[in-house]
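Handout, section 3.2

Students often ask what a structure token actually looks like in practice. Rather than define it abstractly, here is a full record for PQQ-dependent sugar dehydrogenase. The first block is the sequence as you would receive it.
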Amino acid sequence: MRLAVAVLAVVLTACSAAPPEGAPVPPSASVPAGTEAVSPSASVPADAEAASPSASVPADAEAASPSGSPAESTPAQGGLRFTRIAELERPVAFAVRSGDRRLYVAEQGGRLRTTDGDTVVDLSGEVSGGNEQGLLGVAFHPSGRWLYLDWTDKAGTTHVTEWAYDGARATRRRDVLTQEQPFANHNGGQLAFGPDGYLYIALGDGGGGGDPEGNGQDLGTLLGKILRIDPRDGKPYAVPEDNPFVGKEGARTEIWAYGLRNPWRFGFDRANGDLWIGDVGQNAWEEVDYQPAGSEGGENYGWNLREGRERFRQGPAGKLTDPVIVYPLNEGGNCSVIAGFVYHGAKIPWLRGQFLYGDFCAGWIRAAPVDEPARDRRVGEVEQLSSFGEDHDGELYALSLAGPVYRIDPA
């Protein structure tokens, strides 16, 4: 398994040729400790563009959005500033709670904390300590009354666990869902409530190089999927009646989408409900997948028949949903895609309607117009980028596994 950082390597590292274990952290000039980082402005150096995902799309690739527009048609834009607001221990996930202005951050070592330093839940004595294990995801019920964490126990089993939460104490703990993992890697971990009020859960393919058990394409397992459940109706949860595989013989009804390798982070567009999924690649390609609002679910994103837009193994493919962004592994230090959000805040007018995503090892952050994602542009860097976050106002944040939590501001 390729490790980006010897001890701190997280679930998002892809399996392919890379620096050996113990290799130093890839350098990032934009975020020296204790400072604010200003991103490049609209004039991106030519060498920086070499790692552009848009440049990596093959000319004959089937794309979900127009591409190939001349660079000069890109709207003018300003710069970004990454303002450090907290220093935590291996932050990997971010959430906000209804009626609460605090920002909640999950630390991979097992604690859920606020950015002002309070500890809400401490699972540090229960989580497994592997590179791709630990506390991996956090979400609050739309009412704000319940808290959900995604984590792996010392046996490697994934738990989605619920607590009642009144803003002061987390009580009445119960497991909503558990999933045994055949290997220690590819656990996914993202949790989010969709615009429909249901809980969406990302699970990786169970690990092992190349999905040896074929879980990505197997509708009889939850591995390699995004799930959609109602955690507050039923024991331990209910499956919405309109889930795409309800009534299909042999299929797990919790499944919403499949054919995913390690969907470490996904995010809903707060304006229209579109879903953007970052799926960490195997040997050659990182990808961002897309599901439009109003989808009835059931999309097959291709793994392990396909990696990116290229065939990975032989077998009947059926209808596959193409990624909207792909970029090459190992070029310019690339290793693991980190999906973010479409910006709808008020502070940065030129960024509105653009999807932010980045790469863990290379550290770059790019903004892609939602109607033409191949026309993305580099807008900043964060060392060991592990996740993005979105607050109540639609403003965005970037988390570094090295410890800092940054608010994304106009330069």
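Discussion prompt for tutorial groups: Confidence is low (pLDDT under 50) at residues 1-75. How would you have guessed this from the sequence alone?
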